[in-house]
Design brief:
The chain is built from nine helices and five strands. It is mainly alpha-helical and 196 residues long. The strands form two sheets. The protein has a three-stranded antiparallel sheet with strand order 1-4-5, covered by helices on one side. It has a two-stranded antiparallel ribbon with strand order 2-3. It binds zinc ion (ZN). Zinc ion binds next to loops.
């Protein structure tokens, strides 16, 4: 069961390590506004939906800040752990959406709400985002050329997770690959109205 993956601390520590790599890549490019040097300026979040005994590191959002006087702007690297400013871990958003879309008949909203303690309002926001905003986003138009044409705009992101899982040896690997793929959509998610 893919929901069992969300109980594994190892999944989140792996995603945390990937986030560090993404931040390092971002730092090497320098400040996108002035080419100044970027310094670590991480901050703590209180993400929901992960295992209860999760290392503190997994709540840290990698963040960078320009060191040049007069600029000092914050630069957020792409993230696999977090999906924009949503309160739940990105892995939880992805798995919950996939369960609703991929299970025969779809998992009922009530089941999922209980399983992950998600409010109906939040669930509706995620559904609306993936049905209405994400398929039309410029980033998805660019991303979709990198996956097989069998991944349609309908049933995103569930069919995307299925695609990555089929192309990977394990369900965990598929989930991680899918989160890495979606991480490049971060600028879109960040500017989204659906922050929860
Ligand atoms: Zn700068």
């Amino acid at each position: 069961m893919i929901t069992e993956l969300l109980q594994k601390s190892s999944l989140f520590t792996l995603l945390h390590r990937i986030d560090i790599d993404l931040a390092n890549q971002c730092r090497l490019k320098g400040c996108p506004f002035c080419d100044g040097p970027l310094h670590q300026a991480n901050y703590e979040r209180k993400p929901r939906g992960g295992p209860e005994t999760l290392p503190h590191d997994c709540s840290v959002r990698q963040s960078l800040c320009c060191g040049r006087e007069g600029c000092r702007r914050r630069c957020l690297p792409a993230s696999c752990l977090f999906m924009g400013r949503r309160v739940y871990f990105g892995a939880v958003v992805l798995v919950v959406m996939a369960l609703m879309q991929n299970r025969p008949g779809g998992a009922s909203a009530a089941e999922l709400k209980t399983m992950f303690g998600i409010s109906e309002k939040t669930l509706i926001r995620w559904i609306t985002y993936f049905q209405e905003e994400f398929p039309l986003s410029t980033t998805w138009q660019q991303l979709r050329g990198r996956v097989h044409s069998s991944v349609s705009n309908n049933h995103l992101p569930g069919n995307l997770l299925t695609y990555f899982t089929h192309n990977c040896k394990s369900a965990e690997g598929g989930l991680v690959d899918c989160l890495c793929f979606l991480a490049s959509d971060f600028p879109t998610l960040r500017s989204s109205r659906l922050m929860e």
